[in-house]
Amino acid sequence: MSNPTEAIKEKSMVIQKEMLGDLFTQLSNAKENGKKVVYTFVPGNLTELILALDMLPVYPEINALQSGMRKKSGSYIKDAEKLGFSEDVCTYVKCDIGMMLNGNIGPTGEQLPPPDLLLLSYTGCFTFLKWFENLERLYPGVEIAMLHTPYQEDGKITDDQINYMVKQLTEEVIPKLEKVAGKKMDYDRLSKMLENSSKSEQLWVEVLQSAKNVPSPIDSYFAGVYYMGPLFTAFRGTEKALEYYQELHNEVFERMRLGLHPINPEGEMKEERFRLVVEGPPNWTNFREFWKIFYDMGAVIVASTYTKVGGVYDGGFRHEPEKPLESLAKYCMGCYTNLNLPQRVDLIEHYIKEYKADGFLINSIKSCNSFSAGQLLIMREIEQRCGVPVGFIESDLVDPRYFSYANIKNRLESYFQMLEQRKIIMQQEGASI
Amino acid sequence: MERLTKTIKECESLAFDLNFKEAKKWKSEGADRVLVGYLPIYVPREIIHAANGLGVGIMGVGDRKQIIKGDAYYQSYICHLPRGIIELALDHNLDGFDGFLFPAICDCVRNLSGMFKIVKKGKFTRYFDYPQNFDMNIGGTFYRELIETVMADIKAINGVEVTVEQLNHSIALYNKNRSLIEKIYNIRQEFPWRLSAVDFYHVLRAGLVIPVERHNEMLEEVYSVIQNDIGEPMDNIRIVISGSFCEQPPIGLIKSIEMAGCYIIDDDFMLGSRWIMGDVDATTDNPLNALVSAFLEKSVPSSAIYDVDNPKGKRLVDQVRMRQADGVIFCAASFCDPALLDRPDLQKACDEAGVAHINFQFHENTGQFKVIKEQAGTFSDSIKLWV
Ligand code: SF4
Ligand code: SF4
User: Fold this and answer.
1) Which ligand gives the minimal distance to the CA of A130?
2) Cβ neighbours of residue B351 under 8 Å, at least 6 residues apart?
3) Which residues of A touch B117 (CB under 8 A)?
4) Distance (Å, whole) CA B316 – CA B344
5) Which residues pair with A395 in a beta bridge?
6) Is residue B82 within 6 Å of ligand 2 at its C-beta?
7) Domain spans of chain B?
8) B65-90: string of b/e by CB count within 10 Å (b at 16+)?
């Protein structure tokens, strides 16, 4: 086993750290500087609209996951449960509510400002709606804008759905944003931002697709959750995000050119033994330990569905500066959890084949019906269609009570053994042909 | 009285016929008839009726079917309802259904719509994505298009072109259905002993699997009998049940609550049958718009609808006051995010209004009611002591 060392810091990581530091400073000074604050969700977010009106976004899910990583979520969840929230419901919601009950202290230790607007664009998850109803009660009188994103129930985005969303945007959401911002939307500025978004998205897709290379230069899940940050949250459409993705792209492609393996918190992987596709979010409370089980075994995640919750860009979607609202509508509807189950199966099958994966693993999250309901059928379908070994583990996003390290490690070890045996058999069969 | 007993017996067997024999028989009696199954909570059954179809409510299997396959499709931390429904589908109980509608209540139901697509059940399956925007030109237009899509799905099967007259006729029949249901609730509010909660439950649930015309006859009969002074009042408190709008509590649970001294005088068990509060206009030359505006303006408070301008807590308290109830029993299915995430706020509204409440969770196949009975009994005693 290697000794834990200081994480290797590449330039892109430094840029991202600066971006986040700057955002949280701006947030903590928001009230003094007269900046308006908008709480909103990650999947299907309307970040360009918020930023084009000079407002600052806050993402409650990100707060929850950060609380998970900082080992605060357990007590936050318990506080929410004391308030009457059932043990059974989504722990992101409870963690966020618990954090508010405890002074709304953000990841940098500074207090987050209360919202001037709750922008409920709920893509791919019904619980978001309940979450914001609860937030509204915690901030009585706060302005609210609602964007209903229709589900891709028939496996496609229809014109009726686009029209519905564009109408909501033009007649309700944007006027509400403008009212809170105290200024009119500058559509030229919005288009410029969407152009930046589109460029960043292209770079992001190329980074993701670098994992098709054998060996993969990246881990698309554990490192992917860091890589996706700027694009999926407060920075999409900014020059800084574009700079970040350019830098990340350079680094990844250089690694690929040199035939290097992914970086992890202990350094660089030395060997790629297994290539996996993973479905479902990671656990945040024990993120590092969880990741370590994989890299210790030489397992690289070459594609994951979780890194598509903020947009399935590798499916071809890009924000379009010429059609800003229409493309925002399509963006919201195109996020992974807004795909129907057959689409999800097709996407996973595509990943397994395109990325030459040895196996498919589901991390089923207790909290998240949006992801989890139907995963066992997804698993059967993939097994039938792709013939790769499938694995299934269970944990939670931010509730430490549902992360059993020993259990997960045992299961994964058996799974890796199965992959190993299959490899040997396949090599033998290959040799005998 | 004898007639009532007979009707209730009939309703009981209809309500839990997991082979949907009556609905299938109805279909077999006409060449262009279609069966459209729908999950909780609400779909506008009027449009199916007008297209020579029967909307059939699929409310889960309760404790009437052992789940074997369904458990292999769902993790332990997902509610019970969808596993029972996938079991029905895989066991061919739903063969003969032409299509399925999955109303937008939660992601379990939403994803189940995709599971039905994968296991290839029905000629169509639709996630019925209610608008969460209540402007006639925005959410209304979207909802109308959604309804038209379902109508096109049915027409593709039976070729029936729905006329204004037919749709108005169907609307009138469902208006009558809802109005009779409300009348029975109103009588039970004053004289709950005249029809037990369990019997009423069976009467309501039977209405999900038979033609509305027949259900209306049954309701009329029940209504006429319970206008008479029948049954013996008991020293029970009156409560409202909240949170059982999707996965249904087992009959034993409903019975236990009443036996513990609580008359259930209002509830959300069959919320879909009571969804529109009041009548939908059945006299217009645009009945689709009438259905749309009824949805936008007259929907019952529910966990499925974004409620920021019209808080559910206040509406629950109003309901308690209107029914002159003594308290609320929050009774939600385990792992039901929509009900359980609404619960703290509803409880807070009750606390602020001085409305007593207790809560418990159940599975549709819960078999032990001792604890629940004790809890409900203590609740009843404590209210009797203080009122
Ligand atoms: S249910 Fe899943 S997608 Fe929805 S808020 Fe919870 S964790 Fe997020
Ligand atoms: S019981 Fe609740 S969680 Fe389960 S399907 Fe119904 S609404 Fe969804």
Assistant:
1) 1
2) B357
3) 340-342
4) 13
5) A365
6) yes
7) 21-160
8) bebeebbebbbebbbbbbbbbbbbbb
Q: Report domain B21-160's class.
A: alpha beta
Q: Which of residues 362-381 of A touch B (CB under 8 A)?
A: 364, 366, 369-370, 372-377, 381
Mean pLDDT in residue range A1-20: 73
B35 token code pair: 């069966």
Asked if the peptide bond before residue A60 counts as cis, ω within 30 degrees of 0, the response is no
Q: Give the A:B interface size as CB pairs under 8 Å.
A: 160
CATH architecture, domain A22-188+269-432: 3-Layer(aba) Sandwich (3.40)
Q: Is the CB of B106 under 6 A from ligand 2?
A: yes
Distance of CA A114 to the CA centre of its chain: 24
* Sheet bearing A359-365, strands edge to edge: A299-304, A274-279, A359-365, A390-395
Domain segments of chain A: what residues?
Answer: 22-188+269-432
Residue-by-residue DSSP string for A33-86? TT--EEEE-STT--HHHHHHTT-EEE-HHHHHHHHHHTT-HHHHHHHHHHTT--
- Rg of chain B (C-alpha set): 20
Tens-digit pLDDT string for chain B (387 aa): 788 999 999 999 999 999 999 999 999 999 999 999 999 999 999 999 999 999 999 999 999 999 999 999 999 999 999 999 999 999 999 999 999 999 999 999 999 999 999 999 999 999 999 999 999 999 999 999 999 999 999 999 999 999 999 999 999 999 999 999 999 999 999 999 999 999 999 999 999 999 999 999 999 999 999 999 999 999 999 999 999 999 999 999 999 999 999 999 999 999 999 999 999 999 999 999 999 999 999 999 899 988 877 789 999 999 999 999 999 999 999 999 999 999 999 999 999 999 999 999 999 999 999 999 999 999 999 999 876
Ligand showing the shortest atom-to-Cα distance for residue B303: 2
Q: What percent of chain A has pLDDT over 70?
A: 97
Alpha helices in A220-356 (DSSP H): 224-227, 229-232, 239-258, 287-296, 324-334, 341-354
Q: Does the pLDDT of residue A18 top 70, yes or no?
A: yes
Q: Do residues B43 and B101 touch, judged by C-beta distance below 8 A? A: yes
Amino acid at A269: M
A406 alpha carbon – ligand 2 mean position (Å): 31
- Tell me A387's DSSP state: -
A274 three-state secondary structure: strand
**Spatial distance between the Cα atoms of A329 and A347, rounded to a whole number of angstroms:** 21
CB B113 within 8 A of CB B100: yes
Our CA dihedral for B318, B324, B326, B331, rounded to 10 degrees, sits at -50
Closest residue CA from atom 7 of ligand 1: A368
Residue A296 has pLDDT above 60, yes or no: yes
For B276, phi then psi, to 5°, come to -85, 125
Distance CA B110, CA B108 (A): 5
**B357 sits in which H/E element:** strand B356-362
First to last CA, chain B: 34
Cβ neighbour number for residue A69 with a 10 Å cutoff: 16
Distances in whole angstroms, Cα of residue A427 to Cα of each of A302, A430, B270: 21, 5, 59
Helices and strands, number each (H, E), in chain B: 14, 8
Per-residue tokens: A429: 């069969």
The CA distances from residue B236 to B187, B193, B261, B379, in Å, are 16, 10, 5, 11
pLDDT of A198 reads 98
